Amino acid sequence: MKAVFKTDRGRIRQHNEDNGGIFLNRSGQRLAIVADGMGGHRAGDVASEMALSNLQKLWIETEEIKTADEAEEWLKINVEKGNTALYEHAKSTTECEGMGTTLVAAICTNHFVSIANIGDSRCYILNENGFQQLTEDHSLVNELIRSGQISKEDAEHHPMKNVVLRALGTEMTVNMDVKTIIFEDEDLLLLCSDGLSNKVQEIEMIEILKSNQSLEEKASTLIELANNNGGEDNITIIIVEYLNSDNGDCV
């Protein structure tokens, strides 16, 4: 596999409260993470950085993940540990009160990808069946869409578009979605913060991901497009490409 990570402050925000990265465990498997922090006085970057570093530390000490059940259990246990750490830090540190972060994390193996998400950072897959959003946004507008109160078109300009219903670190316990998919030759996985998904339409994502550019160029093109469309938010992207099942894990 190949993978690329990129993050950008955008054109409006003074600070980048997004964090992310791709990390190796002891057997060379990858954990890809995107976290979009929230909170005043720069507490957002504290939250996303803590979420990232906590999972990174746990992952690099992890032995080989052999089954989807093992991967999903790892995500459930360790994301919950990260939630506890953030929640306790926010309670004990005045300037971090109320801080939190979205999280989308994917364990990449030769045979499958297991994904956990909280909030509205997303994971998509591009494969022979087309382009699909694998995660469900935990947001107010998504609940309004699901209940039939507004359309997807209405949601794009809704005044409460940025209201997230679930976040890491804001409550004593966290409710996350976890799922596993088969990952095969030539499949592409895209993880991103809403700084991308709010500014780049799916048809544009597909066109760029299917282009002949390198992974690095694809990520840069997606960020450039989000900035050209306003760039009001931080933008973070991870692209993972499955090249050949005989080539080992993510590179």
TrEMBL record:
It comes from Cytobacillus dafuensis (Bacillus dafuensis). The keyword Acetylation does not apply. Its cofactor is Mn(2+). Keywords: Hydrolase, Manganese, Metal-binding, Protein phosphatase. PROSITE patterns: PPM_2. Residues 2-242 form the PPM-type phosphatase domain. Its EC number is 3.1.3.16. This is protein-serine/threonine phosphatase. InterPro entries: PP2C (IPR015655), PPM-type-like_dom_sf (IPR036457), PPM-type_phosphatase-like_dom (IPR001932). GO terms for molecular function: metal ion binding; protein serine/threonine phosphatase activity. It comes from the Bacteria. The keyword Glycoprotein does not apply. It is an enzyme of class 3 (hydrolase). It catalyses: O-phospho-L-seryl-[protein] + H2O = L-seryl-[protein] + phosphate; O-phospho-L-threonyl-[protein] + H2O = L-threonyl-[protein] + phosphate.
